[in-house]
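During the practical work, I worked with a single protein chain and the tokens that describe its fold, as given directly below.
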Amino acid sequence: MAIVETVLGLILIVLFSNLVNHYFQWLPVSLVQIFLGTLATLIFNLKIDLDASWFLLLFIAPLLYNDGRRFPRKELWKLKGAIFNNAILLVFLTMLIGGFLITLLIPKLPLPVGIALAAVLAPTDPVAVHSISKQVKLPDNILHLVSGESLINDASGLIGFKYALAVAVTGYFSLTHAVGDFFYVAIMGSIAGLILIGIVILAIEWLVVKGFNDVVFNTVLQVAVPFIIYLITEKYLHASGVIAVVVAGVFFASQRNNFVSVQPEINLVTERTWDIIVYLLNGTMFAILGVELPVAMQGAIQSDQVDTLRAFWLVGGVWLILLLIRVAWTFIYQLFDQQHESWRFRLRIALISGFSGVRGAITMAGALTIPVQIADGSAFPERSLVLFIAAGVIILSMVMAIIALPLFAGKSLAIQTRGANADLDANKSLLIEEEDDDSTDKTDKNETVVENLLSLNQAKLYLLKNAVRSLEEQRRQHNQLAVYQLILEYQYLIKRLEIVEEQAVGDSGIVQDELDLNRVAIKGELRELQRLYQTNQIREKIYLRYKKALAKQLKGINRGTTLPQFGLALNLRLSGRKIYRHFLIRWGTPQDEKYMVEVRLAERALAKAAIKTLSEYLRKPDVNEQAFNREAIYHLIIRYRSLIEKQKKQQENQLDPAVYQQQLRNLHLRSISVQRISLQYLIEQGYLDRRAAVALRQYINHEENLLLRVSSV
């Protein structure tokens, strides 16, 4: 019962602190939560057995996983060098230099204890940064750097603290063992995160393909991911669960578009659930920090061996040491930047970076794991003073950030870190548009809805087909690739719905049609591949590679397996191919460049041959074109045209990822608008009952909301 009361009390503190922050916005919510937690301890004698292992599992793992999911991937890659340096090198530099200076400041503190104290104070806490700087506009590079390094420095700081503490307790240290252990826990943690989240993504995709759209089940599955990954990595692999959940979060975000448009309601509910979880965990974490502060400071205040006033001065001294190390590191790091900025500008950036390095709950959780005794049974040296300094530096770093950041950064909008509001003229020759393409790749523009009342799936098909037609109307020379990609996504939904409708009447036409048409197209590709090789347009290596791949696809089709339309396995293969090509283009020889030209030639020629073969096949007198499902035909044509357009863009170096993503977003928003207009038509004409109309309107709203949320990441 005491646990239930404690949990409810912490939730009340979180709610009340945010209420206070609403009316007193100048007062950082994190400090309010710490104050209320401390007050609850003093009045109600509230105690929480803060075990670092469960604290990392219940609080740090989900929060860092959510950080990885929502961190701007473009910025993460752009600042990879600075983030790595701050998260790894700066942490260990702070440990060594900071630990040495701390022992000079406190002579009676053994060097291993000083290093341990510096290590546990090294990780920064972006939760605290966000909370104390809602009215501060940090420069984007500083904002993303502080957020990015916090994804990793928790792990490096805790690892350093672990070994420094071991030396303080046992007096033994092995550099070889420590370095080897660090690389093991880091590399194995990264691998474990990739593999485990890969399994989760494959499971989600399998559920999507099977049509299992239970919102609650999928939401619980995705929310449970960081806890499972952390636990498996830490308990069974003895690696860094922190790194594992960060890698998992970043990789999940990179693969989210595979199924985000297929199940918008599930993804939207999942995001809202994460909003609630992050809201509670952030607040509870600082409330617990407030509860533990009296425990950490009590020993030093009551001890006759520690001068309380001097202890406060030591807190300021240790904080100043950490600040100077971070400021100096940032200033020196900028000297290697190619931008020619004045020393005053660089000093300002360094000071902003220094003051934004706020310490938080991970520091307190680590400090409280310091044992009472060392190996020989004697008391741990200056344990009370170390806990007092750790707690004091947390509070002082927050207070100083409140005072200094507005002076150096100015006032503006809230920054977005953890805990923030978790809130495309057609090229006819290239596309091989035949005079009768309308019979193979376009839906009937005169199609009308049936006179009877439509089912939910029938109405959704009508909306999606109208969205596809609107995309075709918006297709221009500059946005064809984005149009084709979005049409493919809608076509996947259309095919799924038509399969459901066919299964309802005991038919499987669309599946068989897709198999038959794919077989025809691949045979056309094989003939074109043979022609390219025999005319010496491609080398033998490329010929054998594509022949093997096409033969494998044809074998799968003959077994009744349709080609994958999306998925992790497909994306991994394409990503590997992309990395290999990038390597050849950037570091390869002229011979390699010729190889890539031949690869692009082969892919475009095979796609064109597939479209031509399909067109010729459907015009045969003995083939009844009308017997084939129109969506199966259309989907194949669009898929090949998308491939042709992509190869064209890459060959001409016109594929700008930022422009492409903006085209996708604008086209998607317009197609959603078309769906909304189509729904209104169905409602006005009486083709839908009230329940179906509400469900479809919710579906469209979910798709739009999710698109806006994802595009903001």
About this structure: Confidence is low (pLDDT under 50) at residues 411-450. Residues 511-655 form one domain. The chain has 27 helices and no strands.
